[in-house]
Amino acid sequence: MKIKDIVNRDVVTLTNCEHEPIHIPGKIQPHGFLIGLTSERKIDYCTNNISSFIGISYTEVIGKNLIDVFGTKAENQIFEYINDTIQNVFPLEIDLLGKLFQVSIHRSFDIYVLEAEPLFPGKEELADVYTQTIQFVTQMNNTRSLKDLCALVAQGTREITGYDRVMIYRFDKQYNGEVFAESCREDLESFLGLHYPHTDIPAQARELYIKNQLRLIVDMDYEAVPIFTIDDRENKNLDLSLSILRSTSPIHVEYLKNMGVYATLTISLIHHGRLWGLIACHHYAPKNISPHIRLAAKLQGQFITSQIDIRQSNDENINAQNTALALEQLTGLDLPLLQESIEKIINAPQLLNICNASGVSIITRGKIYKNGLTPSDKQVKKLITLINAQVPEKVFITNKLSDYFPEFGSFSDFAGIIYHSLGSDDYVIWFRPETISEINWGGDPEKAIIKDDNGLHPRNSFNIWKQIIKNQSSAWKEYEINGALQYAHVLHNQLMMVILSEEEEKYRTQSEILKETNSELENLNWISTHDLQEPLRKIQLFTSKMLAEPDVIQSESVSSSLHRVSKSASRMRTLLDDILKFSRIKYTREALQEIDLNHILEATMEEMKEVISENNAVIEYENLPEVHGVNFLLRQLFSNILQNSLKFASSERTPNIKITASSEPELVAYSNKIYCNWVRFSDNGIGFEQRYSETIFKVFGRLHNQEKYTGSGVGLALCKKIMQTLGGTIYAEGRPGEGTDITIFFPCDPLDTLLD
């Protein structure tokens, strides 16, 4: 059996440390030993320092069954512990070959990893830890802010663990760290408030902190202990992500030594699945603590993470209440539905209080309304243009505008904005001025790597380095952003209501004008249909008398003139009658009734019997459907269509009119509507070119010479008006020299009412 170590010998430097496989170092710290068991209870991994603890060499252990090395009792205890649901809370206290150990066990893929440390003496310290924890919980209830709680945890953790310095280290969004709270020996320089760059804790280290929430380094000068295994496959390794004894990155060790630290305890603070921060315990001499104290310290971290949301809510509660109050007052303003209401809104102090802004602008209909500390109108317009061009969303929020638009970097009046597009070129923008801030870093973050004759190293200077931050405002809080968002919706609705109100007023005014105009037209219509009828009757009467008295008519030219006058008067009376009929349709208020079109056709043909006979016309028809309509309108409709066919009959053939119908629903393409009944009048007259299919339905729309084809040009316009009134439509298809098809379509819905 060949045995090999699994030590990772890749050279780690500051140029590649971000990719260091820190979860598989292949070695551990020497204050304990490690054994790896297969599921068959065979020892597959072992550290070479096992002999320092139990007097047996790793070569005598690897490849053996656990029972053969440690006996039945130890094997049973170990696997009972593995199957115990609380195994991760307390370590297993066990006798291994006559010596007492505290063993932590976890599973790494298919291997059970046993990490054994000599049993710590003095169980009486557990009572002290318990007492301190009870006191802490009591004091915790008296704190209100997150900062006060973290300060209490730092103090409590230091009392429990005895480390020289305990810091609560909080990360920002970029994982730069800040010492948020601290408790340390009086003779030590305070790190409270110092910031550290994200490069101090690389991404893979942060990921490991999430997996393994407690990390211990007992002595920075330790000599790492290699792990050995059976050489039975290539690239065989052991993931130590959850290990307590795992050896630390040499870069991290050098970094801590540069700070003068010789022992550390690190506890992860996980909030909503993200690494929120760390409890970082530093000691300036080698130091180890018992598993029970480690557990108590870990509990301190859980106190923080369980309270983050509550304490942050308490910290922001008063300001959030003020924002909510401002929003309530602003939305409760009694505003008229006029453009002048924007003046009242912009001057309301609550508009600034909603998000604690220093200035605000409302842009609507090309006009800019401003209050507080705001950019010029020209700058506001330029800002909107830039945002619209580069930001697809309707909302844009930043506390450092120059990061997106460098041209605004020198304007201290508006370093931060909350921008909302309200649609239709309406906007609201809140502004915050530049806030010059000073950040104290624990060493220059730009010099995290030092180069000397021996190569690259972590920085060894942790002297306070001050950074001045410009061109940015204070950050917008979540409740401020939400308050602005809520009011943007309210403002959008207000602007829409103003527009609708103005449109309504405009339409009301137009309606009044139309009403007055219609009244005047009615008067004019009355004059044309009544007052003008009497003179025309007299003209016809006089011309008739004169034509009946030969003695009066002395020449043929006079007779011809009188005939023309009589014809003109007759056409004039016909025109006035048609105009009257056309206007009557508009004012029809009769209810729709179910009407049999067969009866309508019969009545119409009876009325037109003489005209049909004079033209020798042949009318063929099939059974027609029942529709919802108005009786007199349908008779007028049929009469006008038949008269139109007879009027434009061809002189070369006997007039023939075929009337067909259908009750099948049909989609009429030109109107994109479905109608359920149609009737088609097809004649063999002179027809027309299809491009005139709409012209023939217009009032006075004529295609032919008036002398040759009599009529007012209103007949088919009346037909169209009637069908519109009944909720239907009419369509004509012309075949020049062959005839015309006129189709009328009736709606499906019997509840359609008459149109105005």
The name of the CATH architecture of the largest domain is 2-Layer Sandwich
The structural domain count equals 4
What's the level 1 CATH class of the largest domain?
Answer: Alpha Beta
User: What characteristic shape results from the CA principal axes?
Assistant: elongated
Report helical residue fraction: 25-40%
Helical run tally: 18
Could you say which structural class the secondary elements and strand pairing correspond to?
A: alpha+beta
Domain Histidine kinase: 527-750
GO molecular function: ATP binding
Domain PAS: 34-89
Pfam families: GAF, HATPase_c, PAS_2, PHY
Give structural notes:
- By secondary structure, the chain is of the alpha+beta class.
- The chain folds into four domains: 3-118, PAS domain (Beta-Lactamase, 2-Layer Sandwich), CATH 3.30.450; 125-223 and 239-316, Beta-Lactamase (2-Layer Sandwich), CATH 3.30.450.40; 332-434 and 475-501, PHY domain (Beta-Lactamase); 590-756, Histidine kinase-like ATPase, C-terminal domain (Heat Shock Protein 90).
- The protein has 18 helices and 31 strands.
- Strands 1, 2, 3, 4, 5, 6, 7 and 12 form an eight-stranded antiparallel β-sheet that branches. Strands 10-9-8-14-13-11 form a six-stranded antiparallel β-sheet. Strands 25, 27, 28, 29, 30 and 31 form a six-stranded mixed β-sheet that branches.
- Strand 3 and strand 4 (43-47) form a beta hairpin.
- It is elongated, with a radius of gyration of 49 Å.
- The N and C termini lie far apart (103 Å).
- The model is unreliable at 453-459 and 752-756 (pLDDT under 50).
